[in-house]
Amino acid sequence: MSSSVLFYDRPAERWFEALPIGNGRLGGMVHGGVDTEIIRLSESTAWSGAPSDSDVSPTALRELPAIRKLLFDGEYGQAQRLASEHLPGYPASFGTNMPLPRLRLDFPQDETGDPAGNYRRTLDLDTGLVRVEFDQGQIRWVRESFASHPHGVIAMRLTADHPASLSFTATLDDTVLDGGTTSTTDGLVFHGRAVESLHSDGKQGTTVEIRVRFDIDGGTLAHDDAGTVTVSGADVVVVLIAVGTDWAGADPSARASIGVLDYDMLRAAHIADHQSLMRRVSIDLGDAVALPTDVRRERFARGERDDDLIALYFQYGRYLTIAGSREDSPLPLALQGVWNDGFASSMGWSNDFHLDINTQQNYWATEPGNLAECHAPLVRFVQNLAQAGRSTARDMYGADGWVAHTVTNAWGYSAPGAGIGWGMNVTGGAWIALQLWEHYEYHLDEAYLREQAYPVLRDAALFMLSYLTPHPAHGWLVAGPSESPENWYLAPDGTPCSVAMGTTADRVFAEAILRICAQAATILDVDPDLRTRAEAARLRLSPFRIGRHGQLQEWLDDFDESDPAHRHTAHLCAVFPERQITPRGTPELARAAAVIIERRQQAPGWEQTEWGEANFAAFYARLLNGDKALTHVTRLIGDASEANLLSFSAGGIAGAAQNIYSFDGNAAGTGAIAEMLLQSDGEELELLPALPSTWRDGSVRGLRARGGFTVDLTWHGGRLHEARIHAARAARARVRYAGTVTDVTWEAGQERSVV
């Protein structure tokens, strides 16, 4: 039977051992110490920086024709120099999400001197509860924590099985924010501002208020002028934490207020709310192993098999998506979700929204994982980004529609990044806009398509139609100047360059946006002229090309990579999330895509990242190679995830001095595993398309497929035993398994057993 609990037999000593809780806006990392309990706090709108209307280079539009001509003429080095001077953005007040103070509870040392025994620390994915319990001094101590979405607070209850045993001092400490803490008759209050000078000017940022209230049964509560609260001799203590900011005009004090809340009611509402999402999907890949999770992960990294750990990781990605992105979340999942370790925000990356794969990966678990509501904050965010990106399209490119590049922030930054070599991802906006179409594909809600998705997709297509340029030699429509994130090539004279015309990634997303815009307009019966223009432009896009190594070319010309071990393979988005290259439809191109994956891994110094391993797992799932997909899922868990199973970007890569938490590996890993078990394109459902040979027996229930389907699968001996497919509406689709294709028809609400 599959497990759904992360458990540990010792307290967390560092961030990557703590356990995450979240309510879609407010996040906490619970450490579970014996003498000291720590909850590290984060909140999605605690951003430095501010909106700006001066991010675009004032000389970019003037110099674009010259840069294009140099690239078409083969003067790559000169084009690179001119682009470096005129194309990067000017993000003076870009900002970053910032970590909040931590709540620290210090307990008096046990008078008997006895060490803690029978220690157990758990995160139950089914209930969303973190529980810490241990024996010390002949007393059983228990703490329970969760982040309530219905009530907007983090709650912790402390109990002991002897009366009047609970005593501690409480502080809010270890903050990088500009502000301070005061104590009140019932708790702590922090007032401050999220300001810093690395990603903004050190003056602009949101106002932040944190309130911590202590409700005690028995005992006393005292406070002092130093911002400390002391609880003495209590029977039970309930700690409630609320956070507010003034992002988007909100009232931080109102958001941080804590009403009268009964703990049992609060707990019951939290569990019911959480389980309404979490219980939609179950997965069983084998029996649970009765060892602490960190020990299991270490054994797994050494090569010991633990299929249930993979199932646990799959459900963990769903848990984190629920905890980090809810229907009413003010912002979508950032680079670190809603759990800020303080590292990304204090280095060159910024804890922001990366549009050259990371933010997209943050939502790979959402639709197949039956968490459609969790997509809502990203949909709203992209709608706002599309509005902000209109001025960039006009001022930088003289183009219609909207554009966004490599990074964006809480206010919709849409200009290129500040550096050449990574900042000129011209199709970053088109790429993230595909998430809106994906949400439609799974649900076929025409009202949503008309009112929310289509305006964004239409204007992304208008930009493409304005921006694409005829290639002087071939007549193909190509994008540029832009970069293939975040890679460099060697020009014929050996000069490393990043800026090019007609990168394959741009071709993939141009084709996708033009195709989808035309398809959506047809469904809605609008914009016939735009449909005609989009279809005509699609026919003129450059073809995919295979290079001299048998590889899918990343650039229009057969350049070698400046760094053959580079972590990014943006051109393979033609395989996933797109289906422009498929094993059955374009087998030669599919083989060329596989060559890219193998060449990157074999190159000395291969930059293994958490999102890269998840990406490769998804690629191999689409290439119908389950064993290789499993290899990369295994590496993701064993090599790029930590003791608490949170994924990380390894120190030494992309300028990181140490391992830095990154949400994308967890969600993308879940999405890749789902893709191994079920694939759909709106016309066909393929069952167990990339089932690894070692997964002999198992089941998954509740996966979603495009077209409004919910799918339950059971397999024995490596063969499909039963598939039960439920259709939300009247539907007809092809169902494929192991080379057999069956046409199946459903009435609305009907479930069919296919095998």
TrEMBL record:
<dbReference type="InterPro" id="IPR027414">
    <property type="entry name" value="GH95_N_dom"/>
</dbReference>
<dbReference type="InterPro" id="IPR008928">
    <property type="entry name" value="6-hairpin_glycosidase_sf"/>
</dbReference>
<feature type="domain" description="Glycosyl hydrolase family 95 catalytic">
    <location>
        <begin position="263"/>
        <end position="677"/>
    </location>
</feature>
<dbReference type="Pfam" id="PF21307">
    <property type="entry name" value="Glyco_hydro_95_C"/>
</dbReference>
<dbReference type="InterPro" id="IPR016518">
    <property type="entry name" value="Alpha-L-fucosidase"/>
</dbReference>
<feature type="domain" description="Alpha fucosidase A-like C-terminal">
    <location>
        <begin position="679"/>
        <end position="742"/>
    </location>
</feature>
<feature type="domain" description="Glycosyl hydrolase family 95 N-terminal">
    <location>
        <begin position="6"/>
        <end position="248"/>
    </location>
</feature>
<dbReference type="InterPro" id="IPR049053">
    <property type="entry name" value="AFCA-like_C"/>
</dbReference>
<protein>
    <recommendedName>
        <fullName>Alpha-L-fucosidase 2</fullName>
    </recommendedName>
</protein>
<dbReference type="Pfam" id="PF14498">
    <property type="entry name" value="Glyco_hyd_65N_2"/>
</dbReference>
<dbReference type="InterPro" id="IPR013780">
    <property type="entry name" value="Glyco_hydro_b"/>
</dbReference>
<dbReference type="Pfam" id="PF22124">
    <property type="entry name" value="Glyco_hydro_95_cat"/>
</dbReference>
<dbReference type="InterPro" id="IPR054363">
    <property type="entry name" value="GH95_cat"/>
</dbReference>
